[in-house]
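Marked as duplicate of an earlier ticket. Keeping the data here for the record.
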Amino acid sequence: MAAYILVDITINDPQTYERYKLLAPASIAAYHGKYLVRGGRTEVLEGDWEPSRLVILEFPGVEEAKAWFDSEEYAAAKALRQSCAATEMLLVEGFPGG
């Protein structure tokens, strides 16, 4: 069953974040993940949540998503992101058969 990582990120240092954007995709692909949303325009339809930059990643399952997040391949990119942005990140399991 697919798993998704939802990220609400506020970028504090755009130059450093550009470096992160170059590093992260290879590590995501190494764990069979892919971007579904990567910072596109958002529009509030209900409530008051207005993410700064919304990213949604899809992985084949929870195990792959967690393995990616904790991986050596992602470690350098993660440290870079954490140095230049404030992040809220959530792992959610997909709907069976969906």
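See parent ticket for discussion. Residues 3-41+51-93 form a domain with the Alpha-Beta Plaits fold (CATH 3.30.70.100).
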